């Protein structure tokens, strides 16, 4: 397998100490060593979720499994749910809710933008009495469009409406400040293979105190993803089912590094990389797909010029340069490329990948002033670099 | 973490090359390398399931997730299901089926025994017309009791009844001959962390052709575990959701070793270890929990003498000797110890652990002739060892 640089929005490049940690010998998942490991990891995830009150549970699944857990434990047949999709993963939340019989109403937002807090507020106010929403489904960061919501504003718009709020932060958490308690969210879901830069296989679900009562009255079927069972076992330092021990080891090692670096510098790194990639694209005359004020810090979506096949560019980048980037999903297939900022990537990696991108664009017939993209990215790094370089 | 020997029935000790394989760098789960990996692993699992016709799908979950996938895709509200539990994991299958609204009828079997084929046949014949069973739930190997079913006989008893047969072989597959096609099973479930000796995180589900049609008419809700979606993505060399790439790497490496050794020698090794452990227990005057003819090859359950606390023995073995064995689950808690044969364990490991067990039993007040257990195990190894020692 030739060396390649992963710039897809997950799975991301995993740092060597984390990979090494995943290869530790197996232990009894019902023994004292795993208990200590599980409790340590759950405790250290809490500040990343921005919570003291919520319980953090680990599920052996991808992020999608975590989303199913959130929805199927909280909502069921006939529950009126307001979904606020801003891309493919928001639509996935809708599909999950409909699978479990929910009556889903959709607040539409143009792809590339974040949800408008006023539109959300108006939608909630229009749904009174019988029509009141039992739940609201939000996406923090949407990798399919390179956009993210301003969750603080949405939290303010939601406040007081009484609905339970489920937030998909699979590709957002740990890459920017997140305040679950302050924002009043009930369940927040993330996964190992995104900003935490651990191999995939683990979903982490934070559950606020008032969510537990709701689950008692919800009859939607769930077994593997039963969060109350997960909580009962977590109280013993266990999981109900055999957990992916290797990935938990990896998460523990990744949290070491996260804490050593400090959250603020981790957030800054993601924001800086995203800014550099956007600056590069703009200098090359390309259009950023996400709207101003809604740019994701974990992935940048860039429109390729009309007549150019985005997927052909991706293939050339992968085959000739070992640089792996994302393409468009759903209705954006072939129209955009997506460059992630998560994982064990240095500024050097980013600059190299952007240079490779320039060559691939030129080869594909895009007219550009070669080097201008990398130059713009370099300027961002020089202007924003912290005194002690990351 | 001090060195310890894992004799629990999963997760098991993983061989060094497999651990190393799990620590390989991440790749794009939608790229050509993962496609080749996924297709290679699925193809190599087929002979282990004893199938040419079935499709083998990989799910990012524990074995329990695979069981939920099997049940929720095949059966739903009001379906009459015959469950044939022989221990805790058979009861888990019942709980899953009831969660999804199935009308579950239970064929009771004394714990420690396998299902009686004639009793099964009679039960099926008594359920005619409207009362006909839509499905049958079987356990291949039951780690909670150290027993296993004679699946060939059960398959013969079932033949022609028309019901769809779901088999939990989480702790059985790869440790003995399995013939899915010949036995006419519709879905067989296994997991990575058992006889294949890979870290946990992956369920492997084999689905026979006629099962797919059944799924079209089944309305039970499933999203993460939707097997048709898994099949659609498998056709592209992908999984619907981000897979636990590290564990798939590990499975690939474990299959290298499995094929190098050859299935027959792998089966013989499990059977020989189980026989040696049983011989040891019997020489020490202890009772094997499983009935004659129903002994598991992957785990031996041993009753501790009345008045002796099995869990105290386990704790001493773990703390003083680094030997980790299982205890009783459910109604057997405190009454039995369970010693697994799966994983990267040598005969030396087995002999060492049995010696340590003798000391722990003596310390706990069990009257025994020290060394007689290990002696009996040694005899089994000497009598049954293949010319080229494993």
List the helices and strands and how they pair.
The structure is a homodimer of 390-residue chains.
Chain A: E1 5-7, H1 16-22, H2 32-49, E2 55-59, H3 63-74, E3 80-83, H4 88-99, E4 103-106, H5 117-126, E5 135-139, E6 141-142, E7 147-148, H6 151-158, E8 164-168, H7 180-183, E9 187-191, E10 203-207, H8 209-217, H9 227-234, H10 245-261, H11 263-283, E11 287-288, E12 299-303, H12 310-321, E13 323-327, E14 336-340, H13 347-363, H14 372-384
Parallel strand pairs in A: 1-13, 3-4, 3-5, 5-8, 8-9
Antiparallel strand pairs in A: 2-10, 6-7, 9-10, 11-12, 12-14, 13-14
Helix pairs in contact in A: 1-10, 2-10, 3-4, 5-6, 11-14, 12-13, 13-14
Would you kindly provide a written description of the structure presented here, covering whatever features stand out?
The structure is a homodimer of 390-residue chains. Chain A is of the alpha/beta class and 390 residues long. Chain A folds into 2 domains: 129 residues, Alpha-Beta Complex (Aspartate Aminotransferase, domain 1); 244 residues, Type I PLP-dependent aspartate aminotransferase-like (Major domain) (Aspartate Aminotransferase, domain 2). In chain A, α3 packs across α4. Chain A is globular and about 60 Å long. The mean pLDDT of chain A is 96. The interface between A and B is large, with 58 and 58 residues. Chains A, B: Heterodimer of a large and a small subunit. Chains A, B: Soluble hydrogenase catalyzes both production and consumption of hydrogen from suitable artificial electron donors or acceptors. This subunit catalyzes the tritium-exchange activity. Chains A, B: Its cofactor is pyridoxal 5'-phosphate.
